């Protein structure tokens, strides 16, 4: 099984930016930990992070255009969660299972962070569990894939 993990703007600053909200692990550490976990459940990860909306959209579109063997997507759109209809539309074009992940509990934060353009098209949303949310997202996608293919 192959999973694409997408991370949006400012997540490259994990460990430095507001560690009391986002934790002290760097994105590199989070992804390294996630790769080890994914390997233990026979999953291959492709990771991409960008601060640019168009780059995230192009990565999503390339799954379809290049017929990449991706079976599910984990996305932390970060600030684009609340603003990007374009990322939403790109994800809809794929017809793949999607798990939306947020490190912090967005529902306990500012009101503008409580609206997501992704949540209603996602198969699941994981918020407030820090980097462990990505592991739970892998488990959810593996479960969906296994159920679909058995």
TrEMBL record:
Entry-linked Gene3D superfamilies: Dehydroquinase, class II
Keyword Endoplasmic reticulum: no
Catalytic activity reported: 3-dehydroquinate = 3-dehydroshikimate + H2O
Pathway in which the depicted protein is active: Metabolic intermediate biosynthesis; chorismate biosynthesis; chorismate from D-erythrose 4-phosphate and phosphoenolpyruvate: step 3/7
GO molecular function: 3-dehydroquinate dehydratase activity
Positions marked as site (Transition state stabilizer): 17
One GO term of the biological process aspect: aromatic amino acid family biosynthetic process
EC code(s) of this entry: 4.2.1.10
Sorted UniProt keywords: Amino-acid biosynthesis, Aromatic amino acid biosynthesis, Lyase
Active site: 22 (proton acceptor), 102 (proton donor)
SUPFAM superfamilies in alphabetical order: Type II 3-dehydroquinate dehydratase (SSF52304)
Signal peptide: none
Binding site for substrate: 76, 82, 89, 103-104, 113
Function recorded in the entry: Catalyzes a trans-dehydration via an enolate intermediate.
Subunit structure: Homododecamer.
Family: Belongs to the type-II 3-dehydroquinase family.
Protein name per its UniProtKB record: 3-dehydroquinate dehydratase
Source organism of the structure: Brumicola blandensis
